[in-house]
Amino acid sequence: MPAHASATSAAREILTRLHDVMAARTGAQAKLNRVVNIIGEAMASEVCSIYLLRDGCLELFATRGLKQEAVHVTKLALGEGLVGTIAERVETLNLDEATSHRDFVYNPETGEELYHSFAGVPIVRRERAVGVVSVQHSEPRRYAEIEIEALQTVAMVLAELIAGAGLIDESAAAGSDRESGPVRLDGLKLVEGMARGHAVFHQPRVHIDHTVAEDTELERQRVYAAFRQMREQIERITSQAEFGAAGEHLDVLATYKMFAYDEGWSRRINEAIDSGLTAEAAIERVQQRTRMRMREISDPLLADRMHDLEDLSNRLLRIVSGQLGTAAQMGLRQDSILLARNLGPAELLEYDRRRLKGVILEEGSLTAHVTIVARAMGVPVLGRVRDIRRIVAEGDPLLLDVMQGAVFVRPTAPMEEAFEGKLVIGQKRRAEFAAMRDLPPVTKDGTRVTLMINAGLRDDAAALDVTGADGIGLFRTEFQFLVSATMPQRERQQRLYRDVLDTAGDRPVIFRTVDIGGDKALPYMNQSEAHAEENPALGWRAIRLALERDGLMKAQARALIEAAAGRTLHVMFPMVSEPWEYDEARALFEAQFEWIRSRGKPLPMTIRYGTMLEVPALAESLDLLLPNLDFLSVGTNDLTQFLFAADRANPKLAERYDWLSPAILRFLARVTREAGAARVPIGVCGEMGGRTLEAMALIGIGIERLSITPAAIGPVKAMIRTLDVGALRAVMPGWLATPPRSLRGLLTEWAAKTGVNIG
């Protein structure tokens, strides 16, 4: 019998026998004792144990294989040992050697030293772990995926059994320890903005009352009907979506629809029904697995696509259970801030934009589909906010300040006053910056600084007119690849590039070739190419990937060249570490140029080639590279973490990631001198240039071209127009010659003395 069929049969056997246990008129302890034996026998497991959450601790309630005297004696705190880790993180563990795991804790009273392999899954109720079911073997072995799924199926039924027997800590499951006073919650800035409104939860939790199916075929038909209804909903929602302009968010919606028709997803639900679950329980089982996989995925882009499946699972579960009400369907009655674990783009589009003022997510990321759509809608979003359901109640007043990365729950009067003041100041400053839109970024002593914007979506180009920027100094072409379900065809790439150039008019647009791979893996890449890397930022990405996968780069080269017909095309290569990489990439573009010319197609007037300086090694070969460059752009984000060997996402290393450290400024000053001597224009296109004090320092060492976020144009321009660059350049060499630990204090003090507006 195939392994899959065998495991499915074992799962059905377990469910059938558990159904009898649940119906039996015996005590709860006797039922649990029978359950561990049923699981152990069906899975040929030497040990099966059940731990339940009681009084804040995980207590061993029943076991087959461990010492019986440990029952009700062995207790673990949440996060303690392997069992405590599973419950705290609501995730699965599957280990061939339990003692090798960093969270392993030895409990001598259980006799578990005899066993090596370990697998455990959480028993989940109301989205929280209320227990753990685990199995162990004396021989080291890793449990098959289908065995883990069978264990998860059992855990679902156990949740129903132990809840009915009153064995679980319902207060912990329900989150009744909700706070009532004012609270500040911090999160990740996804879409900037400020908003006030009342808390509205996106959807009530669907509670599954019955997990074991009486009629498998009937459950399958219920799922098929729910799939049809869900797909009709998605088609209707996406067809009715309205935006001010076409944009990459439309690609996002197309990708979302693709997931709704994914056959693999529906097949997994059918397999769960085959194991003996009801339609609701089968969807929930697959959804739980999806959530656990999301926690295991380090690549944020792949995790974002898992979030789309999570969203669709929620929709499907509501349909099949008949519990269709969401906050969107019931309607927003007042200014509201929406709260959810995560949202899919279609679900966000269901809300009345007149009432929806902001969104707070327990998860979320900068590249998530819902973030892209929210940005197009102009709705501020704060992500990665923990404990929303425990701390916030429906209807609580909220103040959302994404620029500060915070939400204030049940704010006090002083909080309200401070928020209102900041709102007024923000509106006033935006008005002042808007009034400066047509004023040039010229210093007090007459130095003209070029201010450009960073972009990545079609709609971003509209910020040129809003901000009065000089052009787009960095257009991240990979965004189109990241939100697409399949590799964007050359014609589709060409349309995007032409639209951006049309919007920019006579202002330059510097297109960076795709920076994908490593930490930006694409779901449609071959598995051998998208393998996990221990250090993805240092891995197989950007120019390294593009030169090896030259078909991808040739298609992009043709798209860019054809889109720029009759204009100047600016092309920039990322992650170049040696001159030969730049030479090969440029030769590839020039070969495509000749190919297009040979067919008599319109061509750009000229192509200007540049590279990003992100890898410190390239600085040691600039004398070889500069004669072949038309421009050089410093990517300070990656450059700084490479120089300091400090991951910029690691909060413990935040102080090491200081753009005003002497090491960074000395490095940049040397590179600037070399580029100037070779008469090659140099600029900065990282976040460093978008901060007023850091931008002032860059200008002080000779950099006069910055490409920054559109929101930073106003503040940086205001700083430039109050700066005497000659006076700053007179003192900078002395500061760099004998520097303190950081130049931040010196620069701040100098700006205050000379009247520079650093905000």
Give me a quick take on this structure.
This protein is α/β, with parallel strands linked by helices and 759 residues long.
Molecular structure report:
The protein is of the alpha/beta class and 759 residues long. It is 46% helix and 16% strand. The strands form 3 sheets. It has an 8-stranded mixed sheet with strand order 7-14-13-9-10-11-12-8. Strands 21-20-19-18-17-16-15-22 form an 8-stranded parallel sheet. It has a 6-stranded antiparallel sheet with strand order 3-2-1-6-5-4, sandwiched between helices. A hairpin with a 2-residue loop joins strand 1 and strand 2. It is elongated and about 90 Å long.
**Number of helices in the DSSP assignment:** 29
**Portion of residues within helices:** 40-55%
- Based on Cα principal axes, name the global outline: elongated
The Rg value, from CA coordinates, equals 29 Å
Category from helices, strands and their pairing:
alpha/beta
Properties at a glance:
759 residues, eight-stranded parallel sheet, 46% helix
Task: Describe the SSE topology.
Layout: H1 3-23, H2 28-42, E1 47-54, E2 57-64, E3 75-77, H3 81-89, E4 93-95, E5 117-125, E6 128-137, H4 145-164, H5 170-174, E7 183-186, E8 188-191, E9 194-201, H6 216-240, H7 249-260, H8 263-274, H9 279-296, H10 300-321, H11 327-330, E10 336-340, H12 345-349, E11 356-361, H13 369-377, E12 381-383, H14 388-391, E13 397-401, E14 406-409, H15 413-435, E15 450-455, H16 463-467, E16 472-476, H17 478-482, H18 490-504, E17 509-512, H19 542-548, H20 550-563, E18 568-573, H21 579-598, E19 606-613, H22 616-619, H23 622-625, E20 631-634, H24 636-644, H25 662-677, E21 682-684, H26 692-700, E22 705-708, H27 710-720, H28 725-737, H29 744-754
Parallel strand pairs: 9-10, 10-11, 11-12, 15-16, 15-22, 16-17, 17-18, 18-19, 19-20, 20-21
Antiparallel strand pairs: 1-2, 1-6, 2-3, 4-5, 5-6, 7-14, 8-12, 9-13, 13-14
Helix pairs in contact: 1-2, 1-4, 4-9, 6-7, 6-8, 6-10, 7-13, 8-9, 9-10, 15-27, 18-20, 19-20, 19-21, 20-21, 26-27, 26-29
